[in-house]
Amino acid sequence: MPIEQLNVGYDNFCYVLYCPFHKNAAVVDPGFDATKILQMLTAKNLMLEYIILTHHHSDHTAETKHLQTVFPSSKIVASEADGKKLSVKPDVYVNDGSQLKLGNVRLDFLLTPGHTKGGICILVDKTALLTGDTLFIGDCGRTDLPGGSLAEMFSTLQEKIMTLPDELIVYPGHDYGEKPFDSLGNQKRTNKTLRAKNLKEFSMIP
Ligand SMILES: [Fe+2]
C-alpha cells in the first residue's frame, strides 16, 4: 500500500497516497511546503486527483489552493462540517462510511469529531489509518479549540478507533510521538487516551 509520509512545517505530517498502476495520487493535509509535496508527485510521476483535508485547521490546509493551481482537475475532499470553515470550497463531501477509489487503492472515511466538529480519519486499503489530529502516537488531539469536545473525542476514540483491527498502521497528523507511526494494536495498549475506561478517567488525563 503506497503511502509517503512527509514532514512539513515544524512538526506536521502530510501524506501522499498513490496507485502505482494508475499513477494517480491523493495528498492528505497539505498545511505547508507545497514545493516539497509537488517534488514528491513529480519524482514519482503522479497525477494529483484528490486533496483530502482531515480537518479545517490551517496547519493542515494552507497549501490546498497552491496544489489545486498546479493540478486544476484535482478535487478537494472534506467533511461537510469542516468544509464550511475552509477558505476553499470542497468538491467532494465525505461522511462516516464514505468511500473513494484512487486507482486500485480504496479509501474509507470515518467521521471522528472531538478535535473539530467535522474531523475525519481515512482508512487506506484497510491497512493504514490516517488520523489527522484525532489520534497521535501516544496522545490524542486537543479538544479545547472552537468546535472541539472532550465528550465527542472520548466517543470517537472508543467507538470509531478502538473497534478497528490491531494490524492497522496509524499515521498521525503531527510528529508528536516517540515514533512517526505505529500499529493500532500497540497504541491500544500504550496510548493513555485509548486506555481511559470512561469519560471521567479520560478528562483527568494531563
Ligand atoms: Fe488541528
Low-confidence stretches: none
Tell me the overall shape.
globular
Number of helices: 8
Label the structural class: alpha/beta
- Round the mean pLDDT to the nearest integer and report it: 97
Strand content: 25-35%
- Order of helical and strand elements: EEEHEHHEHEEEEEEEHEEHHH
Bound ions, cofactors and other small molecules, one mention each: fe (ii) ion
Estimate percent helicity. Answer: 25-40%
Largest sheet: 6 strands, mixed
Assembly classification? single chain
Tally of strands: 14
Calculate the terminal CA-CA distance, rounded to whole Å.
Answer: 36 Å
Order of the strands making up the biggest sheet: 1-2-3-4-5-6
Rg, nearest Å = 16 Å
What features would you describe in this structure?
The protein has helices at 34-43, 58-61, 64-70, 80-83, 150-161, 184-190, 192-195, 199-203, and strands at residues 3-8, 12-18, 24-28, 47-52, 75-79, 92-94, 99-102, 105-111, 120-124, 128-132, 135-136, 139-140, 169-172, 182-183. It is of the alpha/beta class and 206 residues long. The strands form three sheets. A six-stranded mixed β-sheet has the order 1-2-3-4-5-6. A six-stranded mixed β-sheet has the order 7-8-9-10-13-14. The longest helix has 12 residues, at 150-161. It binds fe (ii) ion. Residues 55, 57, 115, 133 line the site of fe (ii) ion.
Please sum up the structure shown.
The protein is of the alpha/beta class and 206 residues long.
List the helices and strands and how they pair.
Layout: E1 3-8, E2 12-18, E3 24-28, H1 34-43, E4 47-52, H2 58-61, H3 64-70, E5 75-79, H4 80-83, E6 92-94, E7 99-102, E8 105-111, E9 120-124, E10 128-132, E11 135-136, E12 139-140, H5 150-161, E13 169-172, E14 182-183, H6 184-190, H7 192-195, H8 199-203
Residues 55, 57, 115, 133 line the site of fe (ii) ion.
